[in-house]
Design a protein that fits this description.
About 55% of the residues lie in helices and about 0% in strands. By secondary structure, it is an all-alpha fold. Among the domains are: about 5-50, Arc Repressor Mutant, subunit A; about 90-140. This is Mos1 transposase HTH domain-containing protein.
Length: about 150
């Protein structure tokens, strides 16, 4: 039995003239272990007495337990996803060595240091790295997509 059905039963007990203790006893006798607690029955009695006769949950702020509209699914990337740059991609190996052992007190310091690293590199560094990728790409085709070192 779901929450709404119990609320209807609680409302029925109220309309019959039962108090909260009698309602709890009646529900316990009929449904045993799955009955709402005394405080829940008391809260719904108070709502019904204030004139809120509906048994639906009211709207609340915050994160809903269930959504009405579909939520964008998060796609988990496999370990060698082609749309993610691996950490051994040519610009990162030198960057990792340069950052090794350094301590930063903010994200801005890390960003500034990383940008300075890439700004200091000559155009030929990037050109050579991209040309090396062509060889790896051809190996990947040769090995039919299997992992290439």
């Amino acid at each position: 039995m779901d929450k709404k059905e119990f609320r209807v039963r609680i409302k029925y007990c109220l309309l019959k003239g039962n108090n909260t203790v009698e309602a709890k006893t009646c529900l316990d006798a009929e449904f045993r272990d799955i009955v709402p607690g005394k405080s829940t029955i008391k809260d719904w009695y108070a709502k019904f007495r204030r004139g809120k006769m509906g048994t639906e949950d009211g709207e609340r702020n915050g994160y809903p337990k269930e959504t009405i509209h579909p939520v964008k699914n998060h796609h988990h990337h496999p370990p060698y996803s082609p749309d993610l740059a691996p950490s051994d991609y040519f610009p990162f190996s030198d960057l990792k060595r340069m950052l090794a052992g350094k301590k930063f007190s903010s994200n801005e310091e890390v960003i500034d240091e990383t940008e300075a690293y890439f700004d200091a590199k000559k155009t030929s560094y990037y050109k050579n790295g991209i040309q090396k990728l062509e060889g790896l790409y051809n190996q990947c085709i040769t090995f039919e997509g299997n992992y290439v070192e």
